[in-house]
Amino acid sequence: MERVPDWVDMELVEKGARLERNTSAHAAPYAIRGGFVATFMNTYAALPMALTGGLDKQSAVQRIKETAVFFAGSTLPGALDRYGSSFKAAAKVRLVHSMVRYHVLSRGQWDSAVYGIPIPQSDQMPAGLLGIFRLSLGLLRSGRDQFTPDERARVEFVLYRTYLLGLPRELLPDTPRRIVDVMATRHATLRKAYDDDTCGALLRATMDAYMEPDTSIRSRVRDRFEKSFSKDFFIRSYFAGDIGRAKQIGVDFTSADKLRAGCVGLMIGAQMAIYHRLLDVPATTSAADARLVKKLNRDLSRLGHAEFTTDATNYRHV
Hints:
The protein is mostly helical. It has 14 helices and no strands. It is 66% helix and 0% strand.
């Protein structure tokens, strides 16, 4: 991790982080739950979480918050530098994954003949590359096959952040077509299976978990709107908007959810548009960016400190 690869441009990484702050401050807090459950849609990928006791709501809250803290915090100035907070967090994540691998294999809880090695590097691809995968897919559908300079900076930032989580260069392509191809290949070659006792239980625990720091009226209202938006994000991202298919696995998207998700979407769109404009004007760029950093730090404070720990004595037999 301490060796910055030759293919990484750290100035471009910092520029990409700055460009990502708008999304991280406004959209990510409402979409993180919906993005987090991607890992649970396949029995193989979900098993490590089930083994480590992630089937209850409290564990789900801890894992979502850790994920949110890492990804939001990584966009702060200098966060991915050698002594930055997200560099250290990435090291902890990799250590935790190594410990889980060791314990589930040594305790005979994993069938390597069927599933290979638990939590391989490719398991970091959905969470790490989802943003630039969606960006690349949109570009290809619009007829473009090259990134703009700003898009290239965002991609560089995401690739380096995911590299720190353990992905090798071979799984970190830098063109729209190759990004889509490598993600599609990962999806196509993953052993297909869906077990409701594992996948469904993790999904429902994640969707039902209460993540707010208190039970004030404001927090409870935010919780309901955030859950509705997360459901909408999840259904659009993984079921192409098919509410019926989502309901079959326990994600019930009601008319009230649709209304709340729409309100959140309008709010996020307005906030991001305002800041995008402010960041484009030289006279307001610095002030707007400083405000985004302040908003991100406030959100990180609300989420609390991420421990990134695992305790083998609590692992379950699955």
